[in-house]
Amino acid sequence: MMPTRHVVVTKKGRPPEPIPEYQLPPHTHLTTFSNPIRNRFVKQIKMFEQELATIRRLGIRHILLQGLNFATVICTALMLWKGLAVTLNTESPVVVVLSGSMEPGFYRGDLLFLSLPRDRQLKVGEIPVFNVPEGKIPIVHRLIENHDEPASSIKKGEHSDKLPTRWMLTKGDNNHENDVALYNGLKYLQRSNLIGKVNGYVPHVGYVTIVMNDYPKLKYALLGVLGLTILLHRE
Fold first, then answer.
1. pTM of this prediction?
2. Which residues of 178-206 are buried (b: 16+ CB within 10 A; e: fewer)?
3. pLDDT exceeds 50 at position 22
4. What is the membrane topology listed in the Swiss-Prot or TrEMBL record (predicted)?
5. Assigned domain for 212 exists
């Protein structure tokens, strides 16, 4: 049975009569409003509207002040990073293992702490981190061979504060061959290729970096949430 339609006719000067509430048949279901995806979308819209209202309430002066605080935090972190790099004589004091070539010593996601000795060469068995020509990602492998510059090539009476030239060969603990194929035309590494040597590590802590590199959108989303949180912080 079809529901009765109500038509309201108003006269000038008289308010319209109330329209009786429309009653749905018993078999009708409002599936639109029970859809969890729609409900989640509505909640996100409401949260966004609340954030906009908070921004309007705080005012532009507060937002600028919080932005300045955020910039100060970033600058302080960069200064600490550069200071640590100078102290440890390495351009990157901390790196993350990206492959399994050094298993079982290091696993993917391990966080490594580096330094580069100023007054000595690396010894066989130590683990350097190095770059090769046109290499985009640093490599961490074990040093397996050292070849020093022949004494006959050094001029008699010549003195230098620099360490003598040394050619180095590396290999991953989990690899069957040495790294010559990875050197992009070089037969050996020299000190100029080194970033540092491993002094210690923390297991799996760097896996967050790998996830953010694999999913750039997640990285930008986290940075956006962090920035928005700092901007809207009231204290």
1. 0.63
2. ebeebbeeeebbebebbbbbbeebeeeeb
3. no
4. Single-pass type II membrane protein
5. no
